[in-house]
Structure formats: C-alpha cells, structure tokens
C-alpha cells in the first residue's frame, strides 16, 4: 500500500496543490497540501477502487481539508468580530482573484456567484480540475446522474447569464479600461 500511496502523491500532487491554491490566499495551499497527504495516508485503507478513481478520492480528501480550513478560519473571524468589521470569509474571493478572463471577468464572477453553491462547486471541479462528472460526483458524495444534471443546469445558467450581459467583448474591455 505504501508504494501505491507514493505513486498517488507523485501523480496527483500538482493537481491537488493547484486545486487548493485556486481556493485559498497565497501561501496557504502548501500547508493544506501537507494536511491533505496526512489525511489521505491515514484514510488510505478506506479507499475503494470500485467506487471511483484514486484522483477523485484524493480531491474528496482535499475538499474535506479545505472545508475544515475555512471552518477554522470562520471561527477565528467570529472571535475577532468585536474588533473588526463583520464580514465572513468568502471562499470564492480566492477564486475571483485568479480568474484569467479579463474581458469576461466581471460578468463571469457575477454569474459564478449567482449559481447555487452545489452547482458552482461541481462546475469548478469539472472545468478547473478536469475531473469527469462521475469523478466530481464522487468528490461531492452525490450520484453520477445527479452530478450530470446539475452540471447541465450550471452550464445553462452560466450561458444565460453571460449571454444576457448585453455587451460585446469590446464594450466590456473598454468599460474595464475606463475604471
């Protein structure tokens, strides 16, 4: 099992790190990656290849570690509420900061925020992490058919919102340059 685990770290380490980096502020992903490998190593006996790929299982572990990090950060934030402006940590802020679509950036960010959280997470797992809908379903703990239908709805909503902006790419670019 040790050799199997080492192979998974080698094969999927960069992808898991990128997943964490896109969802956190600078520097946190390195620490979280270590937590992912500790958690995955501890739970390696629970991995069942008949339920899906090791990659999807590792993304599930990473997602669990990431949510634990944000729960901890939220608790810290709540403790500081008396001294700071009350604003909860926004998990999508790290995602927003890294969007590399200058012309569609504002409309894309708005459309992503307006998606239900379950659809948004599924869409990001498929689009950014290159997981199949079945693997993303495994990460999220939902049936594959549910994932496919949610993904279809998410894509439809994104298309509607982005098409509904009513601006050409040139108009959006010009508007951004003026700001």
From TrEMBL:
UniProt xrefs under CDD domains: Sigma70_r4
Domain RNA polymerase sigma-70 region: 9-75
Entry superkingdom: Bacteria
Keyword Transcription belongs to the record: yes
Keyword annotations from UniProtKB, A to Z: Sigma factor, Transcription, Transcription regulation
UniProt feature coiled coil, ranges: none
The keyword Nucleus appears for this protein: no
Domain RNA polymerase sigma factor 70 region 4 type, residue spans: 107-158
Residue ranges, annotated region (Disordered): 158-179
Family: Belongs to the sigma-70 factor family. ECF subfamily.
Protein name (Swiss-Prot/TrEMBL): RNA polymerase sigma-70 factor (ECF subfamily)
């Amino acid at each position: 099992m040790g050799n199997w685990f080492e192979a998974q770290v080698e094969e999927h380490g960069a992808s898991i790190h990128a997943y964490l980096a896109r969802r956190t502020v600078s520097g946190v992903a390195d620490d979280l990656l270590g937590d992912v490998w500790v958690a995955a190593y501890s739970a390696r006996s629970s991995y069942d290849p008949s339920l899906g790929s090791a990659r999807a299982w590792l993304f599930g572990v990473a997602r669990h570690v990431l949510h634990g990090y944000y729960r901890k950060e939220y608790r810290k934030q709540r403790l500081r509420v008396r001294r700071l402006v009350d604003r909860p940590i926004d998990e999508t802020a790290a995602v927003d900061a890294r969007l590399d679509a200058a012309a569609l950036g504002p409309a894309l960010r708005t459309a992503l925020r307006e998606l239900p959280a379950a659809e948004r997470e599924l869409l990001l797992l498929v689009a950014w992490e290159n997981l199949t809908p079945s693997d993303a379903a495994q990460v999220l703990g939902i049936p594959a058919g549910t994932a496919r239908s949610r993904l279809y709805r998410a894509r439809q909503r994104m298309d509607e919102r982005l098409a509904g902006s009513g601006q050409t790419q040139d108009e959006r670019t010009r508007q951004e340059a003026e700001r």
